[in-house]
Design brief:
The complex is a heterodimer. Chain A is of the alpha+beta class. Chain A has 3 domains: 147 residues, Orthogonal Bundle (DNA ligase i, domain 1), CATH 1.10.3260; 196 residues, 2-Layer Sandwich (D-amino Acid Aminotransferase, Chain A, domain 1); 127 residues, Nucleic acid-binding proteins (OB fold (Dihydrolipoamide Acetyltransferase, E2P), Beta Barrel). Helix content of chain A is 38%, strand content 23%. Chain B is α/β, with parallel strands linked by helices. In chain B, strand 9 and strand 10 form a beta hairpin. The longest helix of chain B has 17 residues. The chains are: A alpha+beta, B alpha/beta.
Chain lengths: 535, 332
């Protein structure tokens, strides 16, 4: 564990990507196969099953810290991370932990942490609390993170694959592919990374190719004829993997979501084995897409009742063909993949699988006009894809662009602030904004992002000096600061006092020029909702 | 002095002692200012007279206009101001930092200024003074803040410097120009003899410390671009130099920051330095509580930092405590 702790510290204390890759390569070179497998699993952001919930950890922390509950809460709010708060408050000095340091990462996980799920609360408490007191700070922090399954390391997946490719002397694309899907950390899994063709699961998806945002006009892309234009569908990115008589639906988060979408899978059963489609899971169908909020309702339900399936049917809008007749088609040009995709999807007996139609507008200008209708169609804008391009890995600029519509905006007044998490801990960065309803301000949105570090510091200092009331860690402030907020859509909500819920609200800018009286009204937002739902 | 009139209270100009007719670390100009230490939020220009500890005279001179009238007092020697006896005592914060002890017929008050209890080779250690009312800072008054051994931090800094040096990189370490920078130089002098480059804002204060007999690593000014080879060097600079054009002269480098705030990972990551080193000139949570106990004060007043938190905690422990609204807290 001390080696992994050292790796974590090395990654956490540098912003240089070269140094990160080097630190990981050095770790992989010396680690046992099972440690290397677990480290990879953690580094690419996979979660081991959580063996204890945060509520219990907080309870035990309160008991062990011998501090009043409000003070533990306040410290937690200021630190912004439970695992770290525990380490800061109760970690020992590590003097008794030298033998603990020799327990390896994989032993910690397989012998100690994962078996906890089968133990009683009393047994779990006794073990965990003794770790807290015996482990030095850095290891105490990591063990807490592993317990809650929430360890995030500041490395991108592509950096991890770079380090793996270097350590294992394998092409990066090979590694990428082998890490997709249900990858179980074990010595055997590590060996399969070394010789990638042996260990591939038959339902393994391909790494997704991602688009880059297009800034400014598409004229810069040159001739319109070089580009396929499609709607940017507002759903969940997915891959239908059909091999050996079995079909699976994968999300971009690399989870199998097959069981959530029996309607789509009924159609997928008609695909021939050796077919992989890339596309979008939506509520509705390619002909009539429903707003994203509908899809969320469907995902949110635990039980898929016939009533729900009838009320909110799901569809798969295919836009790429990655595998056909068992062959990997990703290196063929889009034109060829697309032509074959049309032939595949045209096949009868697949009502829930449609195709993402190519837009026929012949000039960038006409296409720009079509983009203006995106909102009425419940799509997010346009996708522009180079007809000659191969299907890449991750976000490689140049071949795929997303040309999103401008967001909705409104002006809200800052009402409440709470301390942030992660790199914003210790600062008031979680804001609640309100709009006018008659003479009162009603909260309508929470936003965390959009301000510069300098603005955050200024606002934080102001909040501390202009607090009206404190409710636990939340502060109400004088309603004087106006912010322009951007958002993607509105849904009705019975859970919010305002009766509406905004999708993905974020701060567009600080309107220091506007007095609070000129902020928006709830009526304005309700009007947007009416237009959006009516259209 | 009636019961309703405290010996020291907050006015619009600063902490004021009416019985002695003087201010402590005022934020607006006054006739008589008694100064705890030379950081900018405590020592400001424009006062008609300054009373401060002799050990801090050179340092204060670096920060005040040449004509500023200063009365330097040795630690522990009382003078009479109005109806009070005032004496200065080591606070352990930076060179020449002082607690202000005010003795009056009604009782003894002590104003701590900023202080720490950890050992520091650059200044005299904090002395707990028995008193009735203790006016304290509360910069790091959260239980999350517990400092590690300073020498451990010094070893971490040295290891970071050497690791950068082995890659041909300069190590630019940000530390407050007054106090922290000299403390780092003094701590490192136990581990190495190598010279360290210093920013102009640090250089003058290093000289003031040397003139007071403080042993530190040899220093060189990090002056003209290209005049020196900074590969593998350690450079000390104030945090304000981060991201400025001044940094260009160092070529490939890594940055570090020395501060108590570096105890929390979110702070380390947010500030964007490559490394954060936990090193503070303020008292941590356990030291604050220990100090309150050692003074035996029946009443604790808190000037800046997490004042509300400490206040509530003390009250729940049965200690009479209150927060004062001051304008301190610009440093660290």
């Amino acid at each position: 564990m001390h080696r992994f702790a050292a790796l974590f510290e090395a990654l956490d204390t540098t912003t240089s990507t070269a140094a990160k890759v080097e630190a990981m390569s050095a770790y992989f070179a010396r680690a046992t196969p099972s440690d290397a497998a677990w480290a990879t699993y953690i580094l690419i952001g996979r979660r081991a099953k959580r063996s204890v919930g945060p509520a219990l950890l907080r309870k035990w922390l309160l008991e062990e810290s011998q501090l009043p509950a409000w003070l533990v809460e306040e410290t937690y709010a200021s630190v912004g991370d439970l695992a770290e708060t525990i380490a800061l408050l109760v970690a020992g000095d590590g003097s008794a932990g030298s033998d603990e340091a020799d327990v390896s990462l994989s032993e910690w996980l397989t012998q100690r942490i994962l078996p906890l799920t089968r133990e009683s609360e009393g047994e779990r408490r006794a073990k965990i609390v003794s770790w807290w007191h015996r482990l030095p700070y850095a290891q105490c922090f990591l063990v807490n993170k592993l317990l809650t399954g929430s360890l995030r390391v500041g490395v991108s997946r592509s950096l991890v694959t770079r380090a793996l490719a270097a350590s294992l002397d394998q092409p990066r694309a090979q590694i990428e592919r082998a890490l997709m899907g249900a990858w179980e950390p074990s010595a055997a899994a590590w060996e399969s990374l070394r010789s990638p063709d042996t260990g591939l699961d038959s339902a393994q998806p391909y790494p997704f190719f991602l688009a880059s945002p297009l800034d400014g006009s598409p004229e810069q892309l040159g001739d319109r004829g070089r580009w396929l234009a499609e709607w940017k569908w507002d759903g969940i990115r997915g891959q239908i993997v059909c091999r050996a008589g079995q079909a699976a639906l994968w999300s971009r988060g690399e989870e199998i979501i097959t069981e959530r979408f029996p309607d789509i899978m009924a159609s997928a059963a008609a695909l021939p084995p050796g077919t992989v489609l890339d596309g979008e899971v939506v509520a509705g169908s390619a002909e009539r897409v429903l707003p994203f909020a509908k899809l969320q309702q469907r995902i949110g339900r635990k039980k898929l009742t016939p009533v729900l399936l009838a009320a909110i049917p799901a569809g798969f809008i295919a836009y790429d063909l990655l595998e056909w007749e068992g062959d990997d088609w990703r290196s063929r040009p889009l034109r060829e993949r697309r032509a074959q995709l049309e032939r595949v999807v045209r096949h009868p007996g697949m009502p829930a699988i449609g195709i993402s139609s190519a837009l026929s507008e012949a000039s960038w200008k006409d296409l720009g006009a079509a983009r203006q209708q995106a909102r009425a169609r419940s799509v997010e804008g346009l996708m522009l894809k180079d007809w000659q391009s191969t299907y890449g890995t991750g976000r490689q600029r140049g071949a795929w662009w997303k040309w999103k519509i401008d967001p909705y905006v409104f002006d809200g007044v800052l009402l409440y602030a709470a301390p942030g998490h992660g790199r914003r801990s210790n600062l008031y960065t979680d804001y609640t904004f309100g709009v006018w309803l008659n003479d009162a301000l009603v909260p309508v949105a929470k936003a965390y992002s959009g301000l510069t570090d300098e603005e955050i510091r200024r606002l934080d200092a102001w909040i501390r000096k202009n607090t009206k009331e404190k409710f636990g860690t939340v502060r109400s402030v004088e309603p004087v600061h106006v912010f322009e907020l951007a958002y993607e859509g509105i849904a009705k909500s019975s859970r919010h006092k305002s009766g509406i819920a905004l999708r993905f609200p974020r701060i567009a800018r600080w309107r220091t020029d506007k007095p609070p009286a000129e902020a928006d009204t709830l009526e304005n937002l309700q009007r947007v909702l009416a237009v959006q739902d009516g259209g | 002095m009636s019961k309703s009139e405290p010996l020291v209270r907050v006015t619009e100009r600063g902490l004021y002692c009416a019985a002695g007719d003087f201010y402590i670390d005022p934020w607006l100009p006054v006739d008589r200012a008694v100064i705890t230490h030379a950081h900018g939020d405590h020592l400001r220009a424009g006062n008609a007279s300054y009373y401060l500890a002799s050990a801090g005279l050179r340092v204060a001179r670096c920060r005040l206009p040449p004509e500023a009238p200063i009365i330097a007092l040795p630690y522990g020697e009382p003078i009479t101001l109005g109806n009070t006896q005032v004496s200065l005592h080591p606070a352990g914060h930076v060179l020449g930092s002082a607690q202000i002890r005010i003795a009056h017929a009604d009782g003894v008050w002590v104003v701590s200024g900023d202080y720490k209890r950890d050992p520091d080779p650059t200044c005299e250690a904090f002395v707990p003074l028995p008193c009735d009312v203790f006016i304290s800072e509360a910069t790091f008054a959260l239980p999350a803040y517990r400092w590690q051994d300073t020498q451990q931090t010094a070893r971490e800094i040295l290891a970071w410097w050497h690791s950068n040096r082995s890659q041909g990189l300069a190590s630019v370490l940000f530390a407050y120009a007054l106090g922290k920078a000299q403390r780092v130089l003094a701590e490192l002098s136990r581990l190495t003899d190598d010279r360290v480059f210093v920013h102009g804002a640090v250089a003058g204060l290093v000289e003031a410390y040397r003139a007071e007999g403080i042993a530190m690593l040899p220093t060189l000014p990090a002056t003209v671009a290209g005049a020196a080879d900074y590969r593998g060097a350690l450079v000390l600079a104030p945090p304000s130099a981060a991201g400025s054009p001044w940094m260009r002269r160092f070529g490939d480098h890594r940055t570090g920051f020395c501060s108590g705030w570096m105890r929390v990972r979110g702070d380390r990551r947010r500030r964007g330095y490559d490394r954060g080193f936990v090193l503070s000139d303020h008292a941590d949570w356990p030291s604050l509580l220990r100090t309150f106990r050692e003074t035996g004060a029946g009443r604790i007043l808190l000037t800046h930092g997490h004042t509300d938190t400490m206040c509530r905690y003390l009250r729940e422990q049965g200690v009479d405590a209150a927060a004062l609204r001051t304008e301190y807290g610009g440093e660290d």
